[in-house]
Backbone:
């Protein structure tokens, strides 16, 4: 039976060691929240840590690429359709407000500890709330514009906080759009919306679906899909 050990680590935050009966070697995998190690049964911790030490620098280079960067005073998002800044104010609690030209601003208490994991969770949640608020104002009219242009209809639209899925469409015509669309370049935002509208006619990804989507994207549906797959949803 598989077992798990968690070891705190200054570099990775935590090292999660999982024992797997059919494992023959020590394998390591980087995730955003730490280093995950799979080992054969009865592997001693000293042996595991020695292997990690041998590869630590290479692992750290990979971890730096995937781990979210700390949100601090002066942090900003400057996407074409969504702009946000983080600053320190004189209030005792966190607040979110809209400033001139539609820029969202998160104000933190004067004595805020940005290195605290709780502070980072609060700031991440505040950013998502700000994106969702902006998305609720921005995306439904854009969806309506494209639906009218191509003579398509849908039952309703939902704005979600999904980070792993840009959008979806049910057989009943409910289109869901992630607030993370606000981070995309305009042409990729349009592509996602057109993709979901195409599903109101074709619920699969067969040849007829791509033919329809090509007719809505000047024949560029596959190229746009490839660009979207390369886009990272991290704040930076």
Residues:
């Amino acid at each position: 039976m598989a077992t798990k050990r968690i070891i705190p680590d200054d570099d990775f935050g935590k090292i999660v060691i999982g024992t797997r009966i059919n494992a023959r070697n020590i394998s390591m995998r980087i995730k955003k929240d730490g280093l995950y190690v799979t080992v054969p049964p009865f592997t001693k911790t000293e042996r595991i840590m020695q292997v990690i030490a041998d590869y630590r620098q290479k692992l750290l280079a990979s971890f730096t690429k995937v781990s979210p960067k700390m949100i601090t005073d002066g942090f900003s998002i400057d996407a074409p359709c969504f702009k946000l800044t983080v600053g320190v104010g004189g209030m005792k609690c966190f607040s979110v407000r809209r400033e001139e030209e539609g820029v969202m601003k998160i104000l933190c208490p004067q004595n805020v500890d940005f290195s605290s994991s709780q502070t980072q969770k609060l700031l991440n949640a505040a950013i998502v709330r700000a994106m969702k608020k902006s998305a609720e104002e921005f995306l439904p009219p854009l969806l309506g514009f494209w639906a009218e242009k191509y003579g398509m209809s849908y039952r309703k639209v939902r704005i979600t906080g999904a980070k792993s899925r840009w959008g979806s469409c049910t057989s009943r015509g409910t289109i869901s759009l992630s607030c993370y669309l606000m981070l995309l370049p305009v042409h990729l935002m349009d592509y996602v919306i057109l993709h979901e509208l195409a599903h109101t006619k074709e619920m699969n990804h067969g040849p007829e679906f791509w033919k329809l989507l090509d007719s809505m994207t000047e024949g560029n549906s596959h190229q746009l899909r490839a660009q979207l797959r390369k886009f990272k949803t991290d704040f930076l």
Q: What stands out?
A: DSSP finds five helices and eleven strands in the chain. The chain has a mean pLDDT of 92. The two ends are 40 Å apart (CA to CA). Residues 11 and 56 are 9 Å apart (CA to CA).
